[in-house]
Design a protein that fits this description.
heterodimer, A: mainly beta, 7-stranded mixed β-sheet, 11 strands, about 0% helix, B: mainly beta, 4-stranded antiparallel β-sheet, globular
Chain lengths: ~120, ~110
């Protein structure tokens, strides 16, 4: 069975840092581009960023709203994806999903999703 | 950034109804569009990719059409499990964006 399990969600103060992890089972993330997507409570979906696979040298893309603050990395040997979040703002409060894209830079889509990790930024 | 605008934002329908949701892109995105639905407290689930390709395991009552800037998702005969929020998503360029969602509720 394919699963993505996020961990590391927590309550953190503005300006603080947090690291989310996402561990996959049932498929190899090495075959995938892996992304983070967030959802503000009661709102829609916002793409955060992606990690391309080894074929594309593990390069990353991030949304403008988190550029310079969030870093995406992966460890294919552990079948895991990570999101390092620094200088957190109250507007970063959201459920963070990891998601897998089997295709790539054009026409990509997410066929695997985790259950989500809640990050709350508040004093 | 490419904006995706879904219509309607809210839809009330009955079991057995045929419904169509539209997603319009602010610029052409070829067929690089996917559709998802999401139930409360759950992750989104992929329904359609490449504008019209049904994801494995998704019932055939779901269908997608379109290319360029206008796309539709049609559910031919609504089932109770279809009441959810529907999102479109593109990957024609970065950033990836999603539509604002269409909430489908039981009449």
């Amino acid at each position: 069975e394919v699963q993505l399990v996020e961990s590391g969600g927590d309550l953190v103060q503005p300006g603080g840092s947090l690291r989310l992890s996402c561990t996959a089972s049932g498929f190899r993330i090495s075959d995938y581009y892996m992304d983070w997507v967030r959802q503000t409570p009661g709102k829609g979906l916002e793409w955060v960023g992606r990690s391309r696979n080894k074929n594309k040298s593990y390069t990353t893309e991030v949304a403008a709203s988190v550029k310079g603050r969030f870093t995406i990395s992966r460890d294919d040997s552990k079948n895991s994806l990570y999101l390092e979040m620094n200088s957190l703002k109250t507007e970063d409060t959201a459920v963070y999903y990891c998601a897998g894209d089997p295709t790539g830079d054009w026409g990509g889509y997410f066929d695997h999703w985790g259950q989500g990790a809640l990050v709350t930024v508040s004093s | 950034d490419i904006q995706l605008t879904q219509s309607p934002s809210f839809l009330s329908a009955s079991v057995g109804d045929r419904v169509t949701i539209t997603c319009r892109a602010s610029q052409g995105i070829s067929s690089y569009l996917a559709w998802y639905h999401q139930k409360p407290g759950k992750a989104p689930k992929l329904l359609i990719y490449g504008a019209s390709t049904l994801q494995s395991g998704v019932p055939s009552r779901f269908s997608g059409r379109g290319s360029g800037t206008e796309f539709t998702l049609t559910i031919s005969s609504l089932q109770p499990e279809d009441f959810a929020t529907y999102y479109c998503q593109h990957l024609n360029s970065y950033p990836i964006t999603f539509g604002q969602g269409t909430r489908l509720e039981i009449k």
